[in-house]
Amino acid sequence: MPACSTSVPAPGAPHVLEADGIQLKFGNRVLLSDVYLRVQTGQVVGLLGRNGCGKSTLLQTVFGARPVADASVRVNGRRVVPAYRQPGLLNYLPQVPLLPPRLTLTAAAQLLRVDAAAALSDFPELLAQLNRPVEELSSGTVRLAEVLLLLHADTQFTLLDEPFTGVMPVHTEVLAEVMRRVKPRKGLLLTDHRYEEVLALCDAVYLLHDGRLELLANPRQGLRDRGYISG
After folding, report:
1. What would the pLDDT profile of 35-66 be if each residue is shown by its tens digit?
2. Domains along the chain?
3. What is the pTM (predicted TM-score) of this model?
4. Is the bond preceding 82 in cis, omega lying within 30 degrees of 0?
5. Which CA distances in Å does 53 have to 10, 13, 49, 73?
């Protein structure tokens, strides 16, 4: 079935991304079975869970990189499968490195139609390395640049898988502030094992456990009750 174009919400209304009907098994193991996910522009939504529970698989499915029979991904009520084929709809940061090793940050920004100086302006150390190949930069520096470029790209939604991995704590704080600044114009869906950073940043938090996706009414208390955090 071909992908449908997205409908336009009423003036001032947010764009809404939804996903459900996602069923996935690996052998006898049920990875995803009871999933409903909703993100809207103007929101940062967290997706939490233990290693191997299916968070990355869910993000790949929403993006469209992993075809799943009967999966429904919709924007403003219209089906968009695979979503990545819809211009300007969403972009995605996988766990693995995104940028080719010989590409410079300037070239990467050009490919994404992003103003590199504006996207990296909060990090002078990145601006000083715009013309160096990615392979010459530290993994934490590359990760930080990847996240910033995707955040500043002109899409309605950005999906981020472990955006804080390898990023120095002092940079994590600034990166979270950048996410807050771009939030009014796009919806962010992110997963990361740095739970405290996620809780401080997100407007809503889902927990993926035993194939089920649960929207936590009180994220901190819910994670504490289930043994994900203490204190």
Report:
1. 999 999 999 999 999 998 899 999 999 999 99
2. 16-225 (3.40.50.300)
3. 0.92
4. yes
5. 37, 33, 6, 20
